[in-house]
Specification:
Blueprint (H helix, E strand, L loop, with lengths): L6 H28 L3 H27 L18 H29 L2 H31 L1 H6 L8
């Protein structure tokens, strides 16, 4: 199926963001694991896996639209020296991702590509849930203090 004007370009931009997210969440998971925060490590690895699914779906959809997926580029992978810095970087990343997805959804609606719009609407729901999770974690740190929050992150649930 031939893509509508501008759709593949936007999808490739989102693909770059999703691939960057995979790298960023894997890095942050490894950092949390290295610091002994198994619960955070587990959550961030699951988030990275979810982003891999998004990237895979985008690649398939770009090919469906007779486009060429660009998997060769990444945006800046943010890091940090503390859990709070990681959360702030991830929150910023997800807020930017939500904006990127909303703009692409609006474009797809404008050009009449409702299949792509539907795909992106599911992705924006996931990104908004990530925003909520990071906001909640940062608020918990603020309310109970960093030390208490981190003490709860030492063991993964069920351990």
């Amino acid at each position: 199926m031939k893509a509508k004007e501008g759709v593949v370009d936007r999808l490739n931009k989102i693909l770059t963001a999703e691939l960057t997210a995979v790298h960023q969440y894997l890095l942050h998971a490894a950092l949390c694991g290295n610091w002994g925060y198994e619960r955070l490590e587990h959550h961030l690895k699951e988030t990275a896996t979810e982003e891999v699914g998004h990237a895979s779906g985008l690649i398939d959809h770009i090919l469906y639209l007779d486009g060429a997926p660009n998997v060769e580029r990444l945006d800046h992978v943010a890091s940090g020296a503390t859990v709070a810095e990681l959360f702030k970087a991830d929150l910023k990343f997800e807020l930017d991702d939500v904006q990127l997805l909303r703009e692409a959804i609006a474009h797809c609606a404008k050009v009449g590509d409702f299949t792509t719009r539907h795909l992106l609407e599911h992705m924006v729901i996931d990104s908004e849930e990530h925003v909520d999770w990071f906001e909640t974690q940062l608020e918990a740190v603020k309310q109970v203090g960093l030390e208490r929050y981190l003490a709860e992150q030492l063991r993964k649930e069920g351990s």
